[in-house]
């Protein structure tokens, strides 16, 4: 059971005043929330994976594979899987070495901690409602294998806030033990796009990146935009701009604003790799997605006993 008391609220929430018209339903596998404006979000308890975020126009903003496994037997291919406590294949000779790629958070069932609603939060200008859904994961909820592989006393609170102006997802990490630990975190967001041929991203210039497709070494680019024209797997480090924008046909489609995080991964598997993934469908799905993943993955965050760290993103959709 995660203690929610340690969690600083990502937006102000209130339970007084007129009852907000937010529709929330929760069952054994997922939590769904819909605002009076029509915006909606669906969060699977497995991995606390956001699997759908629709704007009031009905437009889906996240890409989810048609073959995504949603029964809790495999990390979800699509939506927003949470990467913790290690990004990518774990390095040798590190406390995370025995963990699987991207850690355990995306493949463990989380607990729904409840909701709070607000009429004046950061995502609800002009008196409209927003809703914050909290999910928790702590050491006692891990499988025996994960607990053995990473034997630290931690708790995570993941807050998913839906407002008419966007979706905010914040991860709060707390060291509940006495021994310090190191971790990386990343929100592996699969964004839906109309056609990757006419997609570019901006806000990533003027900084170095590791190109995992080319040679896993450091590169830099001064170009203000990045077009995705083939397999792309870049880790941008210590970004100066807070916002990475996804443009479709030269028009802003989504803005991804980092909060207390410095790094961003841009990933598209392209044709061959997409086809080789058993849970990636349809084969041409790579044309309709791009991952822009905010995180802290360059080096490690260290928490002493009793310390907390919080980081995440605010995503705004232009349609
Ligand atoms: O197949 P997975 O484990 O979900 O990982 C998908 C991709 O995730 C990205 O974040 C990594 O940069 C890629 O290297 C990786 O291939």
List keywords for this structure.
single chain; nine-stranded antiparallel beta sheet; 2 helices; eight-stranded antiparallel beta sheet; 21 strands; mainly beta; binds 6-O-phosphono-beta-D-glucopyranose; 319 residues
Structure description:
- With 319 residues, the protein is mainly β.
- Helices cover 4% and strands 42% of the residues.
- It contains two helices and 21 strands.
- A nine-stranded antiparallel β-sheet has the order 6-7-8-9-21-18-17-12-15, with no helix packed on it. Strands 5, 10, 11, 13, 14, 16, 19 and 20 form an eight-stranded antiparallel β-sheet that branches. A four-stranded antiparallel β-sheet has the order 1-2-3-4, with no helix packed on it.
- Strand 17 (243-248) and strand 18 form a beta hairpin.
- The protein is globular.
- Residues 5-15 have low confidence and may be disordered.
- The site of 6-O-phosphono-beta-D-glucopyranose has 9 residues, from strand 19.
